[in-house]
Design goal:
P-loop_NTPase; seven-stranded mixed beta sheet; Double-GTPase 2 domain-containing protein; DO-GTPase2; Rossmann fold; two-stranded antiparallel sheet; 8 helices; alpha/beta
Length: 254
């Protein structure tokens, strides 16, 4: 009876705060644009229960259009993020009864400087978030040892902070996304990446953090006089985060 009552109560969609972090050059803004491209513009082709993204408000829609227009017209990736930028999205799906909003996402795209050790602003944002995306520049991680140490530092911050902040948010999802994966063109370099990441993965597991790894590639493809993003692997992290967040929410409601 309780489940029947919950079904007919039609509770409003939950809003989740998602934090996107990574050092400058990791491709946080490009990843967001690529994810929106892959998850929004295919909405008309979406099959039953397949999810897509819509901008929730006019301001987010305008900012996203400006971002995509910059890429198209300049034929370049956008410049680094200089200040924390908010985007509000609605996650929608097609059901037998029509289009349904599953949840809303309040997405924070923050500057790489926030990843410096013991950054109070980062800790505050983490504490108020429901999930996090950590973006790592895959070629830099393979070829630049100081960059590895920087990534190790931010992972240590997450490992130390997240368990303390999970009392009311069990199974806090952390999506670790290796960007620019297409630039690792040999099996040797990809094997090196896997080997070098292993200690970091083991450390996350030792802290029982709900982390999952992904790879993404978002090349620019010429299209007449302009270019367009060709995202690969950007939809999977979004879908995983949404699934994990909804699982936690359903467990709380039971």
């Amino acid at each position: 009876m309780q489940r029947v009552a919950q079904f007919f109560s039609r509770q409003p969609p939950k809003t989740y705060n998602i934090l996107s972090i990574g050092f400058r050059g990791a491709g946080k803004t490009v990843f967001l644009a690529g994810s929106y491209t892959s998850l929004h513009f295919n909405r008309k082709k979406a099959r039953l229960h397949q999810e897509w993204l819509d901008c929730q408000d006019a301001e987010s829609h305008e900012k996203m259009n400006q971002l995509l227009d910059f890429i198209t017209q300049s034929r370049q990736y956008p410049p680094p993020t200089l200040k924390a930028t908010e985007f509000n999205f609605s996650v929608k799906t097609r059901t037998l009864c029509g289009v349904k909003t599953r949840c809303h996402l309040h997405w924070w795209d923050i500057p790489g400087e926030f990843c410096q050790p013991n950054n109070a602003d980062l800790q505050l944002l983490l504490f108020s978030s429901h999930a996090c995306c950590l973006l790592i520049d895959a070629p830099a991680f393979v070829n630049d040892r100081p960059y590895q140490q920087k990534v190790k530092s931010v992972l240590q911050q997450l490992a130390n902070f997240l368990p303390q902040s999970q009392a009311n948010r069990p199974n806090y999802p952390l999506a670790v996304i290796l960007t620019k994966f297409d630039l690792l063109q040999t099996e040797l370099s990809r094997g090196q990446l896997k080997q070098q990441l292993q200690p970091f993965v083991q450390d996350l597991r030792s802290h029982q953090i709900n982390a999952h790894g992904f790879t993404s590639a978002i090349p620019l493809i010429s299209f007449g006089a302009s270019v367009t993003l060709h995202p690969q692997g950007t939809g999977a992290p979004f879908r995983w985060l949404i699934t994990e967040l909804n699982k936690t929410e359903q467990a709380v409601r039971r």
